[in-house]
Design brief:
alpha/beta; 12 helices; Spore Coat Polysaccharide Biosynthesis Protein SpsA, Chain A
């Protein structure tokens, strides 16, 4: 049994999967494996994966499974390592990613993430993000205003993933998982150093207006978010994006709820350290401005 399993879903990724797999294998420690779920690809993905002669790579196919969440769960079922890391089939792992994250988990955390370098291959341009960490105490506050981490940077203890039942088939399955991990008592943090080159392109699922609307409207995710807000703030609030997209909410009611949400977060975050609170309050202001712009763009105001 390897200590670390890296899980990667791919669908029609022939153009990018070679580099993603190569960079992952190159960065992985010795006691590890890479499992790739090929989600019924119809391009040259299978051929690209067959070219690797590395015993650490296992390709999984299953016609009864479709979609990212179910594919990831299939990979979890087919592995039994102590640690699980995520990787996407169009990104590039940076050196030392896995060793840094394993060291962080050895200090007692349950799930760790890293910053990323935004990568625009079409423009041959990269944009490093500020190397700002988010500690265990501050992490749940950030969850209440945004998804503060990139899914393919995750490394977690399998035990905490199993405890919450793995992924659910919902929009933003990663954000939903972080919320449920918090409710289960898992210690989560974001490390400062970047873990990968994160490919930016206009066809990303998360760039789709339809995907975003589905995420905002998901009753399942909304219920979990409200559970988290009740745990931290003592009251059930709606996500800013969900609230901003509701046509049934008047402008006056919208501003009232946003103001109460902001006040509750500002009060509760006073227990954070000075630096972490400053970072969080800055992100809160950004998200409030973004939420109001979203409401205007949707014509709900």
């Amino acid at each position: 049994m390897p200590r670390l399993s890296v899980i990667m879903p791919v669908k029609n990724g022939a153009a990018t999967v070679r580099r993603a797999v190569r960079s992952t294998l190159r960065a992985m420690p010795g006691d590890s494996e890479l499992l790739v779920f090929d989600d019924s690809s119809v391009d040259g993905t299978a051929q690209a994966l067959s070219e690797f002669g590395d015993h650490r790579l296992r390709v999984v196919t299953d016609d009864s499974v479709a979609g990212v969440a179910d594919g990831l769960n299939a990979l979890l079922r087919r592995s039994d390592s102590e640690l699980v890391a995520r990787m996407d089939a169009d990104d590039v792992v940076l050196p030392l990613r896995f060793t840094r994250q394993q060291s962080a988990l050895a200090d007692g955390d349950d799930a760790v993430f890293s910053t990323v370098v935004d990568w625009y291959p079409d423009r041959k341009w990269i944009k490093p993000n500020p190397p700002l960490p988010i500690g265990v105490e501050a992490f749940p506050f950030h969850l209440l205003v945004t998804n503060p981490v990139s899914h393919p940077t995750m490394m977690a203890r399998r035990s905490v993933l199993d405890a919450v039942g793995g992924y659910r088939q919902v929009p933003a399955e990663d954000y939903d998982l972080w919320l449920r991990l918090y409710l289960a008592g898992a210690r989560q943090r974001r490390l400062a150093m970047p873990a990968l080159l994160y490919r930016m392109h206009p066809t990303q699922v998360t760039a789709s207006a339809g995907w975003r609307r589905a995420s905002w409207a998901s009753d399942v995710v909304s219920e979990t978010f409200q559970d988290v807000s009740e745990r931290i703030l003592g009251r059930r609030f709606l996500r800013l994006t969900t609230l901003s997209s509701l046509e049934s909410v008047s402008d006056a009611e919208y501003e009232r709820q946003v103001t109460e949400f902001q006040s509750a977060l500002e009060r509760a975050s006073s227990r954070l350290g000075r630096g972490e609170r400053r970072l969080f309050l800055g992100k809160l202001r950004q998200r409030l401005e973004s939420a109001r712009r979203l409401r205007c763009s949707l014509g709900t105001s």
